[in-house]
Structures are given as C-alpha cells and as structure tokens.
Amino acid sequence: MSKMSKIIESGLKHKHREYVDDKDKADEHMRERSLDEDEVYKIPKLKYHTHVESRFMFDCQMIVFNEVETTEHTIIYLHGGIYVNEIRTPHIAFCDKIAKKTNSTVFTPIYPLAPNHTYEETYRIVEELYQFALELGRPITIMGDSAGGGLSVAFCEYLTSSELPQPEHLILISPWLDVSMSGNYDDYVDCDPMLGVDGLREMGETWAGDLDAKDYRVSPLFGDITKLPQTTLFVGTHEIFYPDVVKFYDKLKDNGINANLFVGEGMTHVYPIYPLAPESKEAFNKIAEIILE
Prior knowledge:
The chain is α/β, with parallel strands linked by helices. It has nine helices and eight strands. It has an eight-stranded mixed beta sheet, sandwiched between helices. It is globular. The two termini are 28 Å apart.
C-alpha cells in the first residue's frame, strides 16, 4: 500500500459518514437528499481532456464525453453513491480520462435516485441508452462503481431475459452486489473507512421499492450469470464488499464465464477512481487495456 493510498484512507476515515452505519440516520439523509435530488446536475469546472457536455436523452440528464466521429468504442458508465447520492467530481474526471485514453464516447446517465425514485425508472433509461449504443455499431463496455457496479451487472443479467445482446465488456469497480447486506462483514467493517452495514441496507431496500431485496435486479449476486460477457472486477481488501465480490467472482468462474479479479491489497472502496495513488493509476491502465482489447 503506497504512502498516497494511506493518506487517502486516513482522509476517508476522517470524513466517515454516520448514515452508512445507522438505519435512522440513513432515513434522515434520504429525507434531506429528497429535497434536491431532482435538480439538474451542474458539470464541475475542471481541466478536461475531451469535450464534455450535458444533454437530455430518454427523459434523463446525460453527461457525454468525447462524442466525435472518430471514436472507436462506446462506454456506458453508471456511477456509485448508494443509489442515493449524486455523481461526484472523481466520477466525472475518471470518465473524461478513460474516454481520452481509449478513444471512446462515454455516456454517463444522471439516473434517478432513492428515495424519490426506485430501480424501475433507471432500468428503462439504461435499456433505451443501451439500444441507442448498439445502433452506433461500436464495441460497448458497461462499467460502474459501487452501486453503479451492482446496477451494471444486474442490467447485464436482465439482458439475458431480453433479445438484446451482451456488451463486449463488463467492468465492475467495487460493485455493490447484495443490497440486502446478508453476508458476514464482521472482519471488514472496522477496516472500511467509507461504508457500513445497517445504513446501506436501509438505502438499498428503499431503492428496491416493492422488490425483495434479494431480487437480482437490485442484488445481482443472486442472479443468473450464465450468459454474462467478459467480466472484470476490482476490489480492495479494506472494504466490506470484498467477500461478496470474491463470492461473485467464484460463481462466475464456476459457470465458465471469462472473468478476472484484481484485488488491491490494503486498498479501500472504489480505489481505481482515486486521483494520484499509484495503485489507482495501475488499475486505470488495466481498465483501458481491457477496453482496447
């Protein structure tokens, strides 16, 4: 674990959010978020490597990176945030960099979130976006982090019940695979500076709406993975999702899926999208290499 990663972990511990640990505080956070959840997202002012714009597609705000005729790949990126929190600046910077590195057009939907919305609206948006991407005729990668990683794989499981083909690649960064939080996380709670159990379960169940929390559409750990595309997973050992990600990877391999797991020893949640850390740069380069295959 590099010095920079230790500094980042220390900072994350200092900023630990109590609502991830406690059901009542999670409800309070969701009530607060509900007041501004449906406001238009403003693109942060950064030094971008590609052209970045916001537009509305499929009744959803979409951030589009590097949409030029010469791009060779299409990426759909689904951001994390416990299905409650809005996209953050590191997500935007990551999408911009990966668009430049892989000569891709990246579509990042600002999808509707809990508690004002449930999974249903987002599935419609992602399906329409995916059909649009298919019509572009370029290799497609579906990628996401945390809740967005769970949504990415759940959507690909959903594709097995439709007539739509799978994408070329599925890339999952610390995916949230079980919103019911039914696993045993005791060995990982203390070392995870970002996440907790009870608060996540409450927010995940809110996102699920009328669904059982173990329905594959919100908890893809329990879904049919037999037709998934080439799947790559990144996870740190200092995060509570680690055991579920390993369990999911084993399930993929047992079913003959072309899958790879990259474990960041001592790394925390969604470490590949951190700025500056050498482990993050290594993971970023691996992601670009996979897409360029």
